[in-house]
Hints:
Elements: H1 3-36, H2 41-44, H3 67-77, E1 80-85, E2 88-93, H4 96-105, H5 132-142, H6 148-152, H7 155-175, H8 181-198, H9 211-221, H10 226-234, H11 236-245, H12 249-271, H13 281-288, H14 307-315, H15 328-359, H16 361-383
Antiparallel strand pairs: 1-2
Helix pairs in contact: 7-8, 8-15, 9-12, 10-11, 12-15
Main location: endoplasmic reticulum
Keywords: Endoplasmic reticulum, Fatty acid metabolism, Heme, Iron, Lipid metabolism, Lyase, Membrane, Metal-binding, Microsome, Monooxygenase, Oxidoreductase, Transmembrane, Transmembrane helix
Cofactor: heme
Amino acid sequence: MGLLDVLRFGFVDVSGTAATVTFLLILLILLYWYSTSAFSKLQKVGICHPPPLPFIGNLLFFREGFWENHNKLINEYGPACGYYIGRRAFMVVSDPDMIKYILVEDFGNFTNRMVPAVTSKPLADSILILRDERWKEVRSLLTPAFSAAKMKEMTPLINQACDILLSHLKDCADSSASFDIQRNYASFTLDVVASVAYGIHVDSQKKSRENFVKNSRRFFELSLFKPLLILTIAFPFIMIPLIRIFPNKKQKEVNGFFISAIKNMIALRDQQDANERRRDFLQLMLDARHLANDISMEHFDTFSQGLEESKAAANKGLLKKQPRTLSDDEIAGQAFLFLIAGYETTNSTLSFATYLLATNPECQQKLLCEVDKFFAKHVSRHHA
């Protein structure tokens, strides 16, 4: 090999290495730009926030939980602050006047909630996910179902679940053995949701193998594999389409069960005589399908604004035509939302309240006296 050949080989080798290094540098610069390019949104509008990390934002800020760290965030960055989870910006508002302005005075600009990247039925048809005009229509149809008088109609069903809970707690107390109170409350909460939202009577403490109980617990056990969750947060434009292409088979089965359960119950209710139907949340939604002459509630956005405002709007000719009624899919969506919103929250609240009462006997005694006093007053009034 001649000198010229050696030099040519060295030149090509050096050029190849330089090209590789250049390509890697460009790739790293692009990755860094992508990982931080979304982190200027809050700063542009004057919202303070913790320094975000590339790709994941402030995810690690909440690694010990959301409640305490939200308080820490507010104390450190003010009543209107923010943070990033991945590339998505979030704003935290804790000032009461500002919250009132957002939820009441300027509510028309804040009707839509953040839409999850991947949403499937029945949740996709719930009021949590619906947007714009359809959200307003469904809300106006559902609002009457939450009046104090109609909610009171469900009291016997809730009392029935309470009796089952007390029976199980008595068995636990009589056994003198330790037991998991949270499990009892989980069963109680599930019994209430099954009864008022799905029209199904279950005793999930004793009949844990019933389909409704099994699928409810399967749903709350579903979760993304942690590395997959982090990848989805960091690279949503790649991971979200992949998740949609390769859906979770177990989740599809669970969702299908709840859709089928509610539609079967709707068909059964339609066949029943009106006097035979249970007065529950499901029936109130079914009744809402036939309220063709009700006044639309579009022009008042809180329950405190009542019938007088709707009449005034009607006199001015502001009310639009009555929205189309709830579909079976939307009824299934609201019932499923009832399960999501009511199960874990109620269970955790009851469990924590019981723990506090058990560790603070003076508060327990005070509560017992107040309950006895209220009960005595209620009984005397009833007999009078």
